[in-house]
Each structure stands twice: as C-alpha cells, then as structure tokens.
Amino acid sequence: MALAATLAFGAFNVQANAQPTAIAEQSFQGVNGLDNKILKQINVDNIYNHIAHLEQTPRVAASPEEYAAVQYIKQQFEAYGYNAEIQPFEFFGFTTPHTVALTVNGTSLPAGFFTYTASGEVTAPLEYVGLGRLTDLENKDLTGKIALIQRGDIPFGEKVLNAARSGAEGVIIFNNAAGSLSGTLGGASEEYVPAVSLSLAQGQALVAQLENEEVTASIKVLGASSGLRTSHNVIASKKATNKNKDNGKAIVLTSHHDSVPGAPGANDNASGTAMVLELARVLKNQPTDTEIRFITFGAEELGLIGSRHYVSNLPDSELNRIAANFNLDMVGSRDAGDLVMRTVDGQANLVTELAQATSTRLNGEPTPFARGGSSDHVPFGEAGIPAALFIHSPLEPWYHTPEDTLDKISKEKLQDVAQIVGTAIYDYARFDNQGPKPKRVKPASIPQQMYFEEDVQ
How far is CA 426 from the centre of its chain? Predict the structure, then answer.
C-alpha cells in the first residue's frame, strides 16, 4: 500500500509545458499548417516519463497498484485542466497464488499456474490420461491420484473438471508446443482441484518416466482465490470549443492501464496510457467542433472488462454520438515490428481513413490495417462504432513478461504513433473540416496474431 501511495502521488510528475525533445524538432515536410499545430506540441519526453512512472510495478486489475495508477492518471488529466471522472465497475476476478510448487519423486520442477485454479496441497501417485477428454477417462478411476494431461482439443477448464470428476486430487497440464504454458480455466468452479502447468519437454519426460516406474507428485498452490473485485476506468472530456458550432459528435481516444501479474507493463500498456495523457495535454486548448473523450480502461487483460462496461452502459443517444474510437495498445517497444491498425471486421472505417491520410502526409505512405481483436477497440466496433487498434506487429519477445520494462521503449516509435494519431484526431475534430475525404485504401496482408487474452485451451 505504501508503494501504491508513492506511485499515485510520487515521482515523475510530468511538466506539461516542457520543451519538445530533439526527436520532435523536425521540419514536417509535406504536412499542412493545421498538422503542425499538433506536431510541434507533442513532447515525447512527457510520454516516456509517464511510462517510467507507471511501470514501477505491475498493475494487476483490482490491485492497490492498479488503483494507484488510476489516481495518477486522474491527477494528470486534472493538471491539464480537465474534470476527470473515475468510473468503478465490479467483476468476478481471481487473485493469483503467492506460492506455486511442484515436485516429482522429490525433484522440483518449475511449474506455472492457471487463472481460477483452486488452492491446495496434494501429494499422490501420478497417472497420464492423454488429453483429458471424457473418452480418455472412460473406465478410469483417478481417486487419490494426480492426473497428467497434455494440452489440446478441449479447454483447460474442461480437462480439470473431467479429471476431478474422475476422482483426481490435482492436475498437471503440459504444453503441446515448445515453451512454457500459462492460461486460464475460464472461470471459477467449486469442483476445480489445484492445477499447474509444465512445458512440453517436461511433460514428455514425465510420460516416458511413467512407462518405466511409479511416480509420486506433490502440488502446492497457495493464495489463489476467486470472488468479486473492483477495477476502474478514468474518463476526461474536452467539449467542443464553441457550443454554437458543436457538431454533436465525439471522438474517443482509449488505452488500458492494467497489466498482467509479474509484468511491469512498460509497453503493455503504460505506453498507450502515457500517449493518451500526452495527447490530452496537446489537444486541450485546440479549437474543435467535436468533443474529444480520453479514457483509460481497467481489467483489459482479463477480457476487456472495463471497456465492455463503459460501452454497455452508454445510452443509445451517446453511442450514436461517437464518430470514432482510436485505441492505443503497446505502441512503444523497440523490439516490436512496424505500426499497424486492427479493425474488428478487417474493413476500412473512419479511423483507418483518417490515420492513413495523416501517416501518408507524415511518412510518405499509409499505415496498413487488417482484421484483429483482443483489445479495447472491440466493444466499440461491436457496437457499430468505427474503431481501430494501433499496435506494432509482430509483437516484442518481452510481451507479458517481467522484461517488459522502460529500457525496451523506443522514443522514436512513441513519437511516430503520437504524431499519426494526434493529427488524425485533430483532422476530424478541428473547425472548418471541409477538406476532401481521406482516400479509402484496401486492407493490408498483415499476419493475424493472437495476443492479450489468456489462453483457455
């Protein structure tokens, strides 16, 4: 809690009027004077310093550290002159275990855990049951045993339930591909038994060992619990400058501020949140005929819970006012690929058109887009609102790991995304926006990646 308080009000208090860093001191050739009103105000050091503040600790949804981040974001919005609102919401969540241990015949193995696993300690004979399907368990009595199961074919939660209903007191699931395994059982159940994970190599070694000898395993999972949790969204809004010229529309710029357990989340997603804050500062005093709404969401990593809460609680009159959603997620890693946009249906919309027009002016070529979900643009897109995710592809190797830290952040990438998004939003929201419509460009052939949502199968 002391750390959380420090994070809320402590170091890295960004100077809103600091001079732009050298990266921003460019001669923006090919852009118009209205673009320059935004470009020359963006200070990448502000974005970087916000990331430095937020990444000091993981910000797991509903934790004191996440709420400290919420307070910091609210404080920054207010420093720029906004009236910021904290929107709480409840969800059925999971507290990660503080202890996860596995030994086999007295030898310790590095094990992972599954979200929504039960806590408990069990020592019992190990039995391999294939994929853990009902057909694999037919006529098997696992009473007083630990089930060894391979990943694949059915969800993890179903594997654990099948084994538990056959009498198993614990479950070990090993991967079906190289590397370690982490995932979720999909939701809480009183029937779950303690479940841990192993890599493919470790699992195959146990299967081979069981062919030659009896094996006894010990599972220890302590501190895991499920129940109602509270997370928060933070909302700030810049109303149209002149009520008489208000076009009645709103553009929403979003990110998520939570991270996964154990990950400082410098790129995922302190980078997006920091950029929302800086663009809120830059756009605050620009004349606009459109409302610009800035939102950071909680509990994205648990299934877009904060953004779904926000969108589902808007009345139809408000939903109909939203012209576009620009969503920023993981926009600063030096080790990720190039900037891309993802739309729910893979089709062009107002966001992609605006961003491609500005990226062409800035960089000489349009930012590509393709189909993709798994971030906070999805609830907006599902509600019929033009929405797109801004992200770099392929993802960095530090995604969802303790190595997602400040030293992996690229100021050049931050600058590039902030320029494209900031000018695209202003291109729509500024007064006298009577210029030619952005040219529609076909989707690019970008490999689809699965990310953000935890594996369930």
Answer: 25
- As given in the structure block, the two tokens for residue 115 are 């979200």
Positive/negative CA dihedral, 220, 222, 227, 232 = negative
pLDDT tens-digit series, residues 95-124: 889 999 999 999 999 999 998 999 999 999
Phi-psi region of 417 (alpha: psi -120 to 50; beta: other; left: phi over 0): alpha
- What pTM did the predictor assign? 0.79
The DSSP bridge partners found for residue 147 are 127, 171
C-beta separation of 392 from 214 below 8 A: no
Alpha-carbon span 51 to 11, nearest angstrom: 12
Judge whether 100 and 196 are in contact, CB under 8 Å: yes
- CB count in 10 Å sphere of residue 445: 7
pLDDT tens readout for residues 11-36: 333 333 333 444 444 444 556 778 99
Q: Compute the distance between CA of residue 445 and CA of residue 225 in angstroms, rounded to an integer.
A: 43
pLDDT digits (tens, 9 = 90+) for 171-190: 999 999 888 887 889 888 99
